[in-house]
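Standup, Tuesday
Yesterday: got the pipeline producing structure tokens again.
Today: sanity-check two examples.
Blockers: none.

Example 1:
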Amino acid sequence: MLDHLVGRPSANWKRIQIILTLITGCWILAKGKTNRLPQIFQTWNRSTARHAPWKIALASWMFYYLLRNLFHLVGLNAPEPLARLYKRSFYRATWILTALDAGFFTAMPLKPMWLRHITSLLFSSYYLVFADAAEEKVRRVRATMSVDQMRVSWEKGATNPILFFAAGLLRPKLSMRRIMLIDRPSYNEHLPPVEIYLFYAGDCATFVDNDTLLLQFPGGGFVSMPPPCHEDAIAAWAKQTGLPICSVNYKKAPEYPYPWQINECFDLYLKLIETQGKILGLSGEKPLKVIILGDSAGGNLTAAVILKIIEHNKKLEMTFMPNLQDSLLTTSYVMADTEQASSKTIGSILDKPIPMPVGLILIYPALDFEMSCWMAPSQLSLIRAESKSQLFRTESLESLWQSKDHLSHASPLSVVPDIDDQNSLWRRVTNKLYSRKTSATRHSQTIRERVHSKPPAAVAWESSRLALTSRMSYFNDRIITPDLMRAMAILYLGPHACPEFESDYLLSPTVAPLDLLARFPKTYMMCGEKDPLVDDTVIFAGRLRQAKSQNHQDGQFDGIRVKFLQGMSHAFLQMMAFLPEAQQATRAIGDWILELRNDASHDPSSNPTKTIHSSVDIIQVTTDTGGHHVAEIVTTEKDMIHRRKQQVVKSLYAE
């Protein structure tokens, strides 16, 4: 109260208030005389004299507890904004996570590391019981969160030896867990090497024979969470798929701001393709097939790396294709084996098209840095169009549409239905004590019903241009708050960045041009329906589909897959130890990995040494016994196959 009286919130004033209260109470206990108390207290004292001290103490505590919760008991408490937002299991998981965060924040100032590790768990146990105190502690810390506090909060599972040991008992055993440093390509050899973690669950003797690699770009807001923080999911995927997993410990902001992380991951991918995996210990005898997986910030890096690859291949296409078309018009043009011809003229991997990965998996990705409040009309139109497609016909997406219809709720800030015409048992018993119009915990009329001038029935939400982004709609999210998003964006962009949010597609892949998105490989996406970043998933998947549709790649729609987890928010892969749905999601992602691997093994066109997906067409020419040349164009665009085949055949057999 003292800090309110002086008009400035202050921890020092709170300490003074606590000390003064304790001193006053101790003086009263030591010097106070019973006969000077009011008569009611003297009567109370005589009636309790025959009871044991512990009973008196317990009764005093119960009376204090009743006073603190009196408004809850009689129904005058404030409404609970998260009452219907999450699934029960996810809310319980966030309760544990919040208690751990509060405990680790409390123990953070302690100097001896061993003492900090022990007291962090002791304080977390306290906050598990006093959940409201934990939420208040975390809220206050997040309001002005520092880099060190972010890393303490998000890396606790890997940095605390007790938690790491306990988690290790639950995860599958790995036969290989190596930390390696990979040199950058020749054009960036002066830069520090890339640190990777290599995981494998199979027999070490069979590691060298693998020709498919899962390349993971881990999330962590660009500022935190190296691969050990993701080891629960990585170990599960390694066991389920049998594939080697390369997880990248890219440099973190703010020490290394944008676009360092994108370039570092891009360089690693080039090195893997250039050496066919030999730098990891693979034989390199077979073409290396890469599946890239990224969650949260790692999903942003995954999309950015693919866009850099496509951009590079497109530049080569602009210079290479005119010469190729001129050559195709003459019968004397013959291209020998592609790899043999390339080895004579190409001295660097950047001098030739870069093979694309066989597929992408994006888990609750952060794909848009434009943290605006309102959704653009083009985004709303895209969502409405895609909501009728097979891609998004799920109950979870229907819930997302309802959260955008702000006028169908009693509160414009509500993202779940808050109109309740059925009274609870408590309400039916005490109904006469409450007014329906002034009740703070329930509502019976939507905002749209309050509007006097109503539009025609056909002109309702479907034609409305007013909708908040998911970042603003899920403002009270328990995992990723607006404070955290602002902090991560500032740290990632750094002190010297001046990005164009509307056009910088390496920073915000959702704004990438359609001609680049049309060249994306198979892309599978997963996100919680209550995630503040869910709009990024919906819009990016819709733009991918739109780009491929405009590019006449009708057969590529099955390569875009989106899965929403009902009642879930962000970072569920970090809750595998106490969230059953996270384990199910991990298995589903493992099935996607196996599907992408099997598709690449059975589809000859996915061989990275023979085709560049939708970038530069590779032409192979052979000579038959009659001396004629037969040309075959390998491409992923169906309409180009027929057209260019006709051009080649006409030029080769022209009289």
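Example 2:
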Amino acid sequence: MALLKVGSKAPVFVTHLEFVGTKCQIFCQVGDVGGQADTLAERVHESVENGLASPISGCNVGDLCLALFNEDGSWYRGKVLQNLGHSLKVYFIDYGNTETVKMNDIRSAPDYVLAIPALSTKCIVSDCTPLSGIWADEEKKKIETMLHSGEFICEIMESDVNTEVYRVKLYSNDASNTPIFVRPAPSSSLSIKSQNLKVGQDYEVYVSYVESSRKFWVQLKSHENDLNSLMSDISACFAEDLPSTGDIVNPTEGQVCAACFSDDGAFYRSIVKNIQGSNCTVFFLDYGNNEEKRTSELFTLPQALCQLPVQAVQCSYKVDSQAIDDKLHDLAEDEGPSLLKVLSGNTKSGYVVEINSIEQILNVPKETSQISQAKSASKLWQSYSSVVMQADGIYDVCLSHIDHPGQFYVQLLGNASNLDKLMQAIDEVAHNYDKLTNLYQGYQCLAKFSDGSWYRGEVVTAEVGKTVVAAVDFGFVEVVQPSQLRNTDPNFKLQPAQAVKCTLDLNKTAHSMWTAAEIDNFKGLSEKNTLVAKVSLKKGCIHQVDLYETENGVERHINTEINNKSTVNPSRAASQIQAKPQPVSAPPAVVLSPPEVSVGSKYKLCFTAVKSLYMYGQLTSTSVEKVAKLQTDLNTFFEKKSGEALLKAEVGSVCCTQYVDGGWYRGIVTSVAGGKAEVAFVDFGDSVMKSVNDLKILPPSLCSLPQQCILCKIVNLPSTVGSSGLEKLINKRVEVKLNGKEDGVYPTYGTEITDRQILEQYQEPQGSRPAVFKGASSRTFGRPQKDETSSVPRYDLFNITLVIL
């Protein structure tokens, strides 16, 4: 940290924190010190195991040593703070925590272990102070949860060279311009400008909220990106771990604030209205709706989030009718923009407008306007947002509830851990909440179902003595006695509803369209733990899916099995047997999700191979376990069966093929000529020429993991660096920024290396400076190694080799 100047920024990893007075002190490792930490751990372990670190009988205050940390049984470097006789008070210089260690668990530290400078730096977090002036236990717990073991960007505000303590601002990696902690300006002085529309001008708008045709709100499409950016900054500023009580004392009407919308658990820019004792109404400035809140739930909005003008523009339609009300509500649910014309009005009183799509309906002859279409059911639950499954997406799922093959519910396995924690929390506290009164359709609640468990629920129908409730995380519906219903907590509304409505066939969504045999066969699948779902179509909130299961390396297409196991009508059996066989259709094209990267963002890549003046870079953000499981499943699948041949190899075809090591890898065809195809491996980089007969169809069950590798064109190395110079980067973990995307079937990006030490290696002669420790530990999987007998890189993957950088 001493190398950084006031005003500079650097990545940090928080290892420990303490609350001293009104300050929050953190101990953090600055920059990419993971490589140093790994080297240090190896040296410490080696010195203890080989007897190079000998026991000591006594220590002086200030001495450096090795001390055993009992919680994990590992040895770490420490500094003696106090001699307690049979034990020492030790400060762990690489992590910041202090422990009392028995003298028997102290060793001398060899010089080569002490050669690496201390990795932990003490900082005071700017603007992180207790709301009441004294740290409450709840505040401490939430801030510790927010910061401990977290990766952030820190900005140096002040430095004290004598004490080596720094005051810093912390920023989220996802919102590097908005501090996590902000010293609020007096909220009464905050103001947000309104937008002015020009009379007679046309605007593309989204209808955001409708009270009636006389009062509704729109957002300008031209500000869509600005609003999305603002919401990202608000989300980063108001994290989930905020105190339960807001920091605004005695709010006044018209005061700008930040308030949580209970339906989605997100914070929005708001203004206070209609204060009645400890309650008030907040108006959400960027959307137009409002909600009743307690005054203690209001938070100060940072000045930086007040720069964008109010996005919700109040409007009134030029005429008033129920038909226009209905159409406006439809437009509010529509994802597309509408063309609006301003007829009169101003910002203060609102604008009188007309909307092109409504005018077209009003001008239709009366006799043809009698036919109305049913509103599309685009929202499954009225009071909860839902988990999103995209068309052509491939997901690991489990079946949570089955009505019949035309209607069932799935949960994404990737969300299982969070759902388990949520269910446990609900079960622990649900009985403490108030019983419900004045129920209505769409009401959010906690419900105790017939199995004795509590679930997040939504009221489907509410009649006297009979309340039907849906379990929004599972999909099943039951009649629940009023005594078994409770009000819910705002914290339980944060997660989207986990039940996703699906069907095997959008043309057969009714129970009567399926035979008893088909329903029974399908319900037998409820015992299966894991399935793979490929979304082929979406209609509103219903997803048509193909379901697959891989068992012992054999893949089963559930949709086909359900149809094949149907009971055959005996009177038609003979004609069915004698019927002319129909041609077998080609399997549907396999779709592989692209790498999870975006232009303008920074990533850590491990470069795996050189292709001319390009390099293959493997993302290091995916866990080794996921990639290892993919490779194991791939090889198991093709060991047990030969697989289906790729009938038509075309540029862009996703496939699977063997490499020279005998292993199977996912790939994409980049060129085809003369019965040969060039295949680029999507998870590890590099390419090979293969006969088109050697290409296999990639099973859909093995497509859920997105592509792990991208092709990089390095844009900021000297022009004299050729392919031989680029090879020096192979197997190195390097921070880069993606500046632009190039056309091509293999995701290719203009790439800027942001790692200063790497850049210096290419600008200075070899040996001009001493070697330095660089880079965090990277458990990257399967880096390519050059085969001495071939010009093609060989993957040392079949035995699941881990490379530690």
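Quick observation on example 2: Confidence is low (pLDDT under 50) at residues 364-377, 566-587, 764-805. The CA atoms of residues 341 and 354 lie 5 Å apart.
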